[in-house]
Every structure is written in structure tokens, then in C-alpha cells.
Amino acid sequence: MFKLILKQHWFLWLMLSVSWLLLPHADTASWQRSAILGGHYWRLLSGNFCHNNFTHWLMNIAALILIYFCYNDRLSNRQFLQLSLIISGLGGYALLYGPYSEYVGLSALIHGLIAYAACIDIIKGRAKIGMVVVLGLAMKLLFEQIYGADPWIKQMIGIDIAIDAHLIYTLIGLSLAQLSWLPLWRNRSVQ
Fold first, then answer.
1. How confident is the model at residue 183, as a pLDDT?
2. DSSP characters for 40-101?
């Protein structure tokens, strides 16, 4: 039974394992501008899998599990992994031009994955579902940009919530979805 679950959902188990193993090592693996500029380039990626504390980790993992099971019938484990690495890498690099000196957590990556998956739903004929998700995500991001992060969540996780990272990673997810749409568009115009 466990073997079957592990085989069917290996992406989720990988994310759980990596982020759990990095939990006590956030000081050496978190996204830190000064360390990255000093040559610790792995932090561009690894900071996305580090967390401030157990509560922060648990909240992010719960959100990742929800997103995974909402979209695992449309995105394979391999696609989830590829997207996670691409979004995390591009996002980690983009944060160098943002307001942060340090960043940890999966929340921005989760925003990027949601944006990508919702756009894919729109592109592949599930437009109503995709549009509701995109609209909900846009409203959440707009609320964060206008009013800031939820103080209750900030207090629970013990750090500022990276609302600009949420926006940046969402834009990366949307952009990747648009890039994946181009071959479909070309095929339709040829026929």
C-alpha cells in the first residue's frame, strides 16, 4: 500500500522530504541576497524549500498538498517537479531585484503553481474553473498589495509574509503557461 502511494505521488513525498530536511538548516540554505551575491548560488533555489519554523512549514505543506490533489489529474508528478524547479529558480533570481534581503518558504512557489495550473485549465477547455481560480488569485494578490499581509498569519509564522514574492512567482507561473500555450496556438492556425 505504502509503495503504491509513494509511486503515485512521488513529487509530494519529495517536496515533503526536502522541505522537512531543510527545516533545521534554514540559516545555510535560505534565500539571502548577500550570500547569493557572495557566490552561494544554490540559495536561489533552496530558499524556496526552507521555512522559518514548524508552523510555517506545516501551513505551506498543507497548501501544497491541496494544490497537488486539485491538479494531479492534469499535471503529472514530473510536470509538478519541472515547474517547481523552473518557477523556484526564476523566482529566486527575480527576488534579487526585489525588496528582500532574505526569503524562505513554499508559498510563492505555490502561487506560481496555482497560476500555471489555472491557465492550463483555461487553455485546455476548463475555462470556467480556470477563470474562477485566476480571478480568486488575482483578488488575493490585489488585497495583499493594497492592505498588506494577514497579521494573524504573520504572527503565527513569526516572519513577514513575502507578498511581493507571491506576486512575482504568480507572474512567472502565468508566463510559463503562456509559453506552453504557444505550440497549441501554432497547431490550430496550421490546420
1. 64
2. -TTHHHHGGG--SSHHHHHHHHHHHHHHHHHHTTTS-HHHHHHHHHHHHHHHHHHGGGSS-S
